[in-house]
Design a protein that fits this description.
Elements (H helix, E strand, L loop, with lengths): L4 H13 L1 H10 L1 H12 L8 H16 L7 H24 L8 H40 L4 H7 L4 H15 L2 H10 L4 H8 L3 H6 L1 H12 L3 H10 L7
Family: Belongs to the sigma-70 factor family. SigI subfamily.
Function: Sigma factors are initiation factors that promote the attachment of RNA polymerase to specific initiation sites and are then released.
Pfam families: Sigma70_r2
Length: 240
């Protein structure tokens, strides 16, 4: 299998519009999909493993959501696969926590402890590693925009009013992919378009430009864990 970057991008863009091409791409990159699944399972996946099916679907999602402005497709797809597998792991853990009412109280306690012992450390390590990876990738991408993590922390909205303004601007950008594409291409926040489209004050957006850089990047590059943190900051409105 040829991992030539230009060839992959060409095939991905074709697969966006052609379901047959998408099926061929998934088939050709099954070794990659299985490799990413194996990293999560710490063993080669079996054909019957649910995790492999989830990874295949995540690869398909990556095809649909990819833009060449996001850099390496395989890097983007690997992150999508890992995030989907972590989400599935969390759901399975919650389901295992639903203990039968026919079990005695003492047995319930023992079972809860067993579940916690077997899974908590593993989940925490996986989430910690995935979060670290996302932060490193986001930091590197932000550097291309001339923004650091400390800049974002210092530039975050402090008042509810300015937070609402930023939230409206982000929601407008997410509903208009051409604006996000322009943002990634030019490496500049399109303040005028955001202010006009979201019907908010441009000056407020200008004061929080560095914060908007981080949030818009999170919205465009599959940073699922970071997106969850941003959702908490912008809670009360549309999820980021």
């Amino acid at each position: 299998m040829n991992f030539d970057a230009h060839q992959i991008i060409s095939r991905v863009y074709k697969a966006k519009e052609d379901s047959h091409a998408a099926d061929e791409l998934i088939s050709d990159y099954m070794p990659f999909i299985k490799s990413e699944t194996a990293k999560f399972l710490n063993r080669p996946p079996e054909q019957s493993d649910d995790e492999l099916s989830i990874a295949m679907f995540a690869f398909y999602e990556a095809i649909k959501n990819y833009s060449k402005l996001r850099g390496s497709f395989l890097k983007f797809a690997a992150l999508q696969i890992k995030n989907r597998l972590i989400d599935n792991y969390r759901k399975e853990k919650r389901n295992k926590g639903q203990i039968s009412l026919d079990v005695s109280d003492d047995e319930k306690t023992d079972l809860k402890d067993t579940i916690r012992d077997e899974h908590d450390d593993y989940e925490e390590n996986e989430i910690r590693e995935a979060t670290k990876q996302e932060i490193e990738e986001l930091s590197a991408q932000m550097n291309d925009f001339g923004v650091s993590m400390s800049d974002v922390a210092e530039n975050s909205p402090r008042q509810r009013r300015t937070l609402e303004i930023c939230k409206k601007a982000v929601a407008y950008a997410r509903n208009n992919p051409d604006i996000l594409e322009d943002f990634l291409r030019t490496k500049r926040v399109p303040l005028a378009k955001l202010a006009e489209g979201a019907d908010v004050e441009r000056k407020s957006l200008e004061r929080h430009r560095r914060y908007l850089v981080a949030v818009l990047l999170i919205c465009t590059n599959g940073y699922e864990i970071m997106r969850g943190h941003i959702m908490q900051v912008l809670k009360g409105g549309e999820k980021v």
